[in-house]
Amino acid sequence: MNLESPKVTVAKPAAYIFESLTKIENFEKLMPENTAKFEVLDDKCFVFGLKGMPEIKLVLKEATPNSQVILGAASDKLPFTLTANLNELAAESTEVQLFFTGEFNAMMAMMIKGPIGKFIETLANNMNKL
After folding, report:
1. What are the tens digits of pLDDT across the range 37-65?
2. How far apart are CA 59 and CA 42, in angstroms?
3. Which InterPro entries does this one have (predicted)?
4. What number is the average pLDDT over the span 4-13?
């Protein structure tokens, strides 16, 4: 299953957005209002829970300076990645788009497609809070 957020433009340089996204604690600023739990486990891992959904542990998997940050599920039970692509438009303007990629059976995909789509859209729209 592949989902993508709308592209959002943030009035910050790509280097600033990249640095912000590689500091795990900053993801709390991006979370939706219905976040029931957010806890930093170490400098590369955090766990969060949305009301009515199971908790998810994310790990910083890969980071390409000023262009891409990839987070992935810490558990192999639900394998997925959340990728942030950064495109610097000007010195103080960066386009950000999030991509969710996961391997789920048809039933699971049908159940989570809506909530996950809304979740990554909220994360993208909150990029201005960094």
Report:
1. 999 999 999 999 988 888 999 999 999 99
2. 9
3. START-like_dom_sf (IPR023393)
4. 98
Provide the whole-model pTM. Answer: 0.94
Q: What is the pLDDT of residue 77?
A: 80
Question: Distance (Å, rounded) from C-alpha 81 to C-alpha 74?
Answer: 10
The number of beta carbons lying within 10 Å of the beta carbon of residue 58 is: 20
Q: What is the H or E stretch that residue 29 is in?
A: helix 27-30
Which pairing describes strands 68-73 and 2-4: parallel, antiparallel, or unpaired? unpaired
- Which CATH number belongs to the domain containing residue 77 in this structure? 3.30.530.20
Domain count, the chain: 1
Q: Which of 99, 112, 92 is nearest to 17 (CA)?
A: 92
pLDDT digits (tens, 9 = 90+) for 90-130: 999 999 999 999 999 999 899 989 999 999 999 999 999 99
What is the rounded distance in angstroms from the CA atom of residue 115 to the CA atom of residue 77? 19
Q: Which run of H or E residues covers position 121? A: helix 106-125
What amino acid is encoded at 121 in this protein? E
